[in-house]
Design a protein that fits this description.
This protein starts with a helix and ends with a helix. The chain is built from five helices and five strands, in the order H-E-E-H-E-E-H-E-H-H. It has 140 residues and is α+β, with helices and mostly antiparallel strands. It has a five-stranded antiparallel beta sheet.
């Protein structure tokens, strides 16, 4: 998806450097999609509760010359088992609206038992990898 986003913008802005990113959450082989309703989000939280999952962020730079540079960052997280009240409270906070799964930089951070990988990748833009891509392309 990051590549598709970069190519779409590149078609509108030819000859420009275009940076795009996209993030997904996976539980096993299942991809979590953005919830449309509070009930959908409660189902997502029940699925994540007490389980390990991955957050995968892809960064794509479409360079001025048309070449693509891409990186994918995978972060493994373990969630505490959440009570139904904790799930209801999280969903009522509306922090999840507009994002895939949850926002790690908000209330839900208190439910993450362990994380191996990139915190900024979980936020949605892996800064280390992005900086390296831009630096390698001569963009400061």
């Amino acid at each position: 998806m990051a590549r598709e986003k970069a190519l779409a913008v590149g078609a509108i802005k030819p000859g420009e450097n275009v940076l795009a990113c996209d993030t997904i959450i996976t539980v096993g082989l299942r991809v979590i999609h953005k919830s449309r309703t509070p009930e959908d989000q409660k189902k997502v939280m029940r699925l994540l509760s007490g389980r390990n999952h991955r957050v995968v962020s892809a960064v794509c730079l479409l360079k001025k010359d048309g070449r693509l540079v891409e990186r994918v960052v995978s972060t493994r997280l373990s969630m505490k088992r959440m009570s139904e009240q904790e799930i209801n409270d999280y969903v009522a906070s509306n922090e999840w609206v507009g994002v895939c799964g949850y926002k790690i930089e908000g209330i839900l951070a208190g439910y993450v038992k362990n994380m191996v990988g990139s915190f900024t990748g979980v936020v949605g833009l892996p800064l280390y990898e992005t900086r390296n891509i831009l630096s390698g392309a001569g963009i400061k």
